Amino acid sequence: MNKARHSPVHSIAAHAILIAYTMIALFPVVVIVINAFKSRKAIFRAPLALPDKDSFSLIGFETVLQQGDFLLYFQNSLIVTVVSLFLVLLFGAMAAFALSEYRFRGNTLMGLYLALGIMIPIRLGTVAILQMMVASGLVNTRTALILVYTAQGLPLAIFILSEFMRQVSDDLKNAGRIDGLSEYRIFFRLVLPLVRPAMATVAVFTMIPIWNDLWFPLILAPAEETKTITLGAQVFIGQFVTNWNAVLAALSLAILPVLILYLIFSRQLIRGITSGAVK
Amino acid sequence: MAAEQSTRPPIRWHIAVFLAPAVLIYTAIMILPLFNTLKLALYTDAQNAQVFIGLDNFRLLFGDERWSEQFWNALGNNVWFFIIHMLVQNPIGILLAALLSSPRLRMRAFYRTAIFIPTILSFVIAGFAWKLILSPLWGVAPNLLDFVGLKGLFQPWLGKEAYALTTLALISVWQFVGIPMMLIYAALLSIPDELLEAAECDGVTGMAQFWKIKLPLVLPAIGIISILTFVGNFNAFDLIYSTQGALAGPDFSTDILGTFLYRTFFGFQLQLGDPNLGAAIATAMFLIILIGVSIYLFGIQRRLRRYQF
Amino acid sequence: MTFKHMKLALLAATMLGSAGTAMAEDVTLTIESWRNDDLPIWQEKLIPAFEASHPGIKVKFAPSAPTEYNAVLNSKLEAGTAGDLITCRPFDASLSLYNKGQLVAIQDLPNMKNFGDVAKAAWSTDDGSATFCVPMASVIHGFIYNAEIFEELGLEAPKTVDAFFALLDKIKEDGSYIPMAMGAKDQWEAATMGYTNIGPNYWKGEEGRLALIKGEQKLTDEDWVEPFRQLAKWAPYLGDGYEAQAYPDSQNLFTLGRAAIFPAGSWEISIFNEQADFKMGAFPPPVQKEGDTCYISDHTDIGIGMNAKGPNQEAAKTFLNWVGSAEFASLYANSLPGFFSLSNETVEMEDPLAKEFVSWRESCKSTIRPAHQILSRGTPNLWNEMWNVSANVLRGAQTPEEAGETLQKGLASWYEPQKQ
Q1: Which of C88, C185, C300, C388 best tests the B interface by mutation, with the highest count of B CBs <10 A?
Q2: Which PROSITE patterns match (chain B) (predicted)?
């Protein structure tokens, strides 16, 4: 690490700002979590109060666990998210490498084509996508969701990764070429490890909309066996009455796995940076 | 080079291999269905058959004030939504990233994780939390303001035309500030130590170091963030839909292109969905975004100087 | 539709009535619905009752969130993956499905004789020649009050508008309670529980509604503007910051005992029964002068029809016929007090509050919401506009006269009979 001179004033100011912002970031989350453990009346009577002897209630969690196999829903969400994520990162990094490394005719055009997907909401293609899944017999399978999410995640992944890959040293790659490494090896052995921080970032961005998506599970895989956790939670948002206990409980539970996934990637992010061989 | 002129260069198959999986999946599952939908903009529904009508849907959208007023209102609101993000979200993101990347900072991982948590939340839960906090009835925001002696400042923000959109934009900033923070953080960390040490030897430290050395180096990342913010904002929909409803009240003051599009395309209450006109709106939005992205790709991105480390 | 499914459906149909001999695989019907509130009632009461009398047919209730329902249903119908039975929104949303050939005409089901023309109107073609959904329930509007607060302050349910405001003044003077729980944020609250709740007393129910359709009255007429004036007068009696008060906020204000009166739809009955721990009463929208005829908004709200491309047509018909029966009417009305059966069969209800609401059908004249039939077919959509201007009037952002003008201008821009 560098030997920057370090004034305590700066450090205190930095901490003060970070703590202040952390409080802003966490306050609403805290509101959600403490209210997930309270009775409905207590939620609205005193939304800021911590659950105490009177107001503590697990009714939300009980309702959630009664109304469907939430363990299965978790599993579905996890499989769909992790597999889509893997495919997005792999295919996205490959395409980004091709775009950023090689000069070929139509490079910019291909880049623009691959970016079109972030400009139109994919929901508009719902009917055609559903028809395609019906034709291929994929309705009510996790495969259908994985395919859609992979397609949906690719444009952004390619867009971000190609920007980062442009910063990877040419000397390094050329040295590899002189050593006789194939282009595939250069990509997998030299470039991928160097863009790990960017990969981790993209992973986080890709994961969140997939985990939180309600629309495609509802359309493509509403069956009990393939329901995702977010879809499971929407049962509690009614026409006239919303069961806030259950919604808060279900969604608080649903945050946990994403949080863990995020922590894994963020550790990866740090490791990717510190083990960067080029410095 | 001279040798290559006589024989054609070999086809570089590896480029195709690298591109193929992404291009195939993306084309089949995203582009074709979307193209199929956008095509509807040129048709109209006549007794359950699609009839080609050329640009009539666009004439209706821009020529008939019943539609054009809504469109321009939504576009104007969307621009304001975007401006707030650029003015608030991105500077905060850069500041937080800069602080997080400062050397020897303790509790770095904690801050980074905590600040990112809102980004993980679904819109339902973010919307609920803020509705509860800002509600005039349940007293969270009024009490907090009272605590700092500013109770007089409290307004039922989400119910006032003058404030609702800005309030929602700030909620959205709260939720998504993690994204610019992480991207810039990653970019700052990849600046080689040697460079910074050299700067310190020249006496460039602290704020000066940030402005003169680091900021120029992370400009490409800021560029990406700006364009992602632009695209994200002009496609935004869920937050407003879940907090203000499909009619984007009060009095359409929070209607942005996304909510206008969904209301038209899928319908709402007694208003039937109109996929044809909806597709026309989507096409208009697509063109707006395409113009923005093209300006970035062809105008800005090429001028940004990149440093390879 | 596969041949196998077809065979199963035929098999199931032929086996109806021969209970006990059913050995073949059961047919499973799936119901699409936006009423996820009702999931437990379907699972615990309605479906078991049906399955007990109809061996060989299984039923699955698969609701989605109400805000997503129309979009999801339309997408599924287009692609052919929708369930066998479709819960029908009233009027045009379902009519357009029928016109696209996605719903089947079912007026020939034997039990359709149990429904009158008014009940069927919400799910029939304009000429009444075809009906495509079995009417399930209507909702009645009025006011629910906290009987304990009324007792404490010595108040009585008001009959006239003057008595109504005198009552609100008294509660306000006392100061311990918010007189009325209503917010302007979720626009529909102001429209359905405000404007179209009290309005029928001014536009004389069906008389005014039909005159509007024929083009004989305008939304700028006194009969249509006066309810907006009334609505505007409510503002001082609502809670602080009611501009940003959402519908769940209003519900909670009332059920937590902080507000005295709740402008309501009858669906609240089952919710309030569960959530409020005080006695409640109800009164119909107050009339202008003592002795005036009273009108109530008794709105046809839910029906159920069958998917034209569903694999189990015969079983679906059997189910729909059962929904038309007296057995279903009684089961449904009693499991969901506040959703009133539209059947001509007399339905005994147990809930006192529900009984109070339904008794108004005898003393007052019923009408449906004015924007629903025919008038919301164009752009701008009259019902959407009513949501918006009702909330505007309540917030004081538009005067009652301006609200009427906005509505009239919008309607006249596309509806022939209203064009000069």
Answers
A1: C185
A2: ABC_TM1
